[in-house]
Amino acid sequence: QVQLRDSGGGTAPSGGSLTLSCTASGDTSGHYCIGWFRQVPGTQRERVAFVSSSGRFTYYNGFVEGRFTISQDKTNHTVYLRMNNLKPEDTAMYYCAASLTSPNCMGSSNYNYWGQGTQVTVSS
Hints:
Elements: E1 2-7, E2 10-13, E3 18-26, E4 33-39, E5 46-52, E6 58-60, E7 68-73, E8 78-83, E9 92-99, E10 113-114, E11 118-123
């Protein structure tokens, strides 16, 4: 019933910027949280940023250090991740994910809908 389409990845130089987009289709009226994870092959998946459907609560992982900004456009059912001052260690597959069952945006297991992922590569 819900499908997430994430896009916007690509290659950027160190210090550059990229903006990721995630557009939701289907019945998302009851979603609680939406955000981004990332994963490098062979490593543990990491939380990046989340936002509640109301927009009142946001979370950023410490490694973002003010560089990334998550935002929502509810009219277009889209969430964005603006990534500034990219670093080589930001290189990963980035996944949009949404929770439609729990208001606990910090519970990884609550994210039950996922995009297919978009690759971000940052060169040094």
